[in-house]
Design a protein that fits this description.
Elements lengths: L6 H8 L2 H8 L10 H30 L9 H12 L8 H25 L13 H30 L11 H17 L3 H26 L8 H18 L1 H11 L12 H12 L8 H25 L2
Helix pairs in contact: 3-5, 3-12, 5-6, 6-7, 6-8, 8-9, 8-10, 9-12
């Protein structure tokens, strides 16, 4: 090489304009969104995903709270709830969930994008092949931020799902929700914050690090991914993250749900683990693992598919 000229400089001199352009293309289309569009697309994706999988979420809560063995499985739960309360009962709590899911998914998805930018995960000049550890850290930080919204959303959703109407009662969901909020108060709405943190942060670390890996395998040279590609990458990541974090979700549900009359409420994260294992066995920590995995995988899959598709159509 000519004196004073590095091999990197020579390679740069001989690189084509297309190569230089490719190096500047972000790994994900969402990385180029404005803040307003990022928030909007995240919220729309969250609502779409949550609405589609809600009956499964309802069944998962029923199974996780079923200490008496009332249900034999997912389909038995569907049948018994629908038979005793009608098909509409499978959507009880959906309005409260949608109200909460918009800011919750916005913080999670847009927050993940924000931290990715801070860590330069989408900058190909820094990380040409991405960086799994930093992607996990971005997801974990976003998961930590979202609990300010997730905790009250989850406790109201769970209590609505476990609500047993009186014989002949026509359930007015917004009225029931309003009464619940008044009864619990602000402090009660944040019952189970620690357990929500203990579930959401590990899940987000695993989920977003794996989603980044799967997405890179399916994205084109311009960093864009098809709707079905986004659905597939997100679903695969969701299967691993959701199934592995099921015990953490069971603990959170027990702490936030209102126990049946005559049953002592659960108090404290560690005491709840000990009580579940002592009374029902260690496998009880995996109650609802099937529904949870089936829920989370398509929920995030649909949410990110909608967001990625909107980012491609309306950048």
């Amino acid at each position: 090489p000519v004196e004073g000229t590095s091999e990197h400089s020579i390679a740069t001199m001989h690189s084509s304009p297309n190569q230089e352009k490719a190096a500047q293309v972000p790994i994900r289309a969402a990385a180029e969104l404005s803040l307003a569009k990022n928030i909007l697309y995240s919220a729309l994706g969250g609502v779409a995903g949550a609405t589609v999988v809600y009956p499964l979420d309802m069944a998962k809560t029923q199974l996780q709270m079923d200490a008496a063995g009332k249900y034999t499985g997912l389909f038995d739960c569907f049948a018994k709830v629908a038979r005793s309360e009608g098909i509409g009962a499978l959507y009880r709590g959906l309005p409260a969930n949608i109200i909460g899911i918009m800011p919750e998914k916005t913080i999670k998805l847009a927050g993940n994008d924000f931290f990715r930018q801070q860590f330069k995960v989408d900058d190909k000049s820094v990380y040409p092949e991405g960086n799994m550890l930093r992607e996990g850290a971005s997801g974990g930080l976003a998961g930590a931020c979202q609990i300010i919204v997730t905790t009250p959303m989850e406790i109201t959703k769970i209590r609505m799902q476990m609500y047993e109407p009186a014989p002949g009662e026509q359930v007015n969901q917004m009225k029931v929700l309003s009464n619940m909020v008044k009864e619990m108060g602000i402090r009660g709405m944040y019952q189970g914050t620690v357990s929500t943190f203990m579930r959401d942060v590990p899940f987000s670390i695993v989920y977003f690090s794996l989603y980044g890996v799967f997405r890179r395998k399916l994205a084109d040279e311009n960093g864009k991914i098809s709707a079905f590609g986004a659905l597939g990458a997100s679903t695969c990541a969701g299967i691993v993250g959701a199934s592995g974090s099921t015990p953490l979700d069971v603990i959170k549900t027990r702490l936030q749900a209102k126990t049946a009359p005559g049953v002592a409420p659960y108090k404290g994260w560690v005491p709840t683990v000990s009580r579940i294992v002592a009374e029902e066995g260690a496998m009880a920590l995996f109650k609802g693992v099937g529904p949870r995995t089936i829920i989370i995988s398509p929920l995030f899959g649909i949410a990110l598919m909608v967001k990625e598709t909107l980012a491609n159509w309306f950048p």
